[in-house]
Specification:
This protein is α+β, with helices and mostly antiparallel strands and about 300 residues long. It has helices at about 70-75, 85-100, 125-140, 145-150, 155-160, 200-205, 215-230, 235-255, 260-265, 290-295, 305-310; strands at about 5-15, 30-45, 50-55, 60-70, 110-115, 165-170, 175-180, 190-195, 270-275, 280-285, 300-305. The strands form two sheets. Strands 1, 2, 3, 4, 5, 6 and 7 form a seven-stranded mixed β-sheet that branches. Strand 3 (about 50-55) and strand 4 (about 60-70) form a beta hairpin. The chain is globular.
């Protein structure tokens, strides 16, 4: 709802995918968690026939800005721009309008949009998916339909954007099923997240997944993984074994070496990639010595469970 200053405000959570990366695209249930870190959208009216858009990173720096004629959003004519981000934004807004014809009333006059982030946009926590969720909230359209139309993917990150606790997500051939649950690991003080600073393109990562290698037995194992992870999350030894087995399975499906074998083969705890392998954050287990292991190797961004997960 608008406040007295006629500002519409929306928020969407970032995400971590804990189990089922890649296989989630083949209708394997995946365990995911929304983050305390959000992207926000504020909409105010303008007194002209333009819309402006400004996007700020977590540190307050402006990383994207555009101002365009409002008629561009209502036109069927192809929008061509040298600014790829502006072109994608127009595509998203147009598709949102197409998904709900009543939305046209919401852009009858000019508007100014401002997005801000709690997290670094390079972290892979969901800058694009949270934007899709925010636009869908504002323009009242199906966020999954908008995500599939604009970016593809499984949609688990769209589910995370508006829930307040862990969930098991099933893509279900673009008819998502979401099971929200309470997950508060007893070993959470022994779980932390390290940023690898090797940004991956998620679409390139997905292309490595060979669904023909997903045998019935591997599908059964991965389907059970969300519940097994939760059941083991009070026993560090059991949890570590599960992480290692999960990494083995995904490695076999995408023909990539697990990150622990490739980069940290002397690490005493367990390490699991999150989402696209080889890129953004990894989930690690251990104590202070294990945290120092990463600090001593120059990995400066380290986040604790309670710091980022509700």
């Amino acid at each position: 709802m608008a406040n007295k200053q006629n500002i519409l405000k929306f928020k969407a959570h970032g995400k971590f995918l804990i189990t089922g990366e890649y296989a989630v695209l083949d209708n394997v249930p995946a365990l995911a968690v929304p983050l305390k870190l959000n992207q926000y959208l504020e909409i105010t009216t303008r007194n002209d026939n333009y819309f402006s858009w400004k996007s700020y990173d977590h540190d307050g720096s402006l990383w994207f800005e555009t101002k365009l004629d409002l008629e561009i959003l209502k036109s069927q004519k192809e929008f061509i721009s040298d600014d790829e981000i502006a072109a994608k934004l127009v595509d998203i807004l147009r598709k949102a309008i197409d998904l709900n014809s009543n939305t046209i009333d919401k852009i009858a006059t000019g508007f100014a949009a401002v997005t801000t982030l709690d997290f670094n946009r390079k972290f892979g926590m969901g800058t694009s998916s949270t934007l899709i969720s925010l636009v869908a909230q504002w323009l009242d359209c199906d966020p999954y339909a908008l995500q599939f139309a604009c970016f593809g993917g499984s949609g688990y990150d769209i589910a995370c954007a508006t829930v307040e606790s862990a969930l098991i997500y099933n893509y279900n051939n673009e008819r998502p099923e979401v099971n929200v649950l309470d997950w508060n690991p007893g070993i959470k003080d022994s779980i932390f997240f390290v940023y690898l600073n090797r940004k991956q393109n998620s679409r390139d990562s997905v292309a490595r997944f060979d669904s023909s290698l997903l045998t019935d037995s591997l599908r059964k194992e991965l389907t059970d993984m969300p519940w097994l992870f939760m059941d083991a999350s009070n026993d560090l030894k059991s949890f570590n074994k599960l992480v290692q087995r999960h990494e083995e399975i995904i490695s076999s499906l995408i023909d990539l070496q697990p990150v622990q074998e490739k980069l940290f083969n002397d690490y005493p705890g367990a390490i699991k990639s999150l989402g696209g392998w080889g890129g953004d954050f990894i989930m690690c287990t251990g104590g202070m010595e294990e945290r120092y292991y990463f600090k001593s190797r120059g990995y400066e961004v380290m986040l604790e469970w309670d710091e980022v997960i509700s």
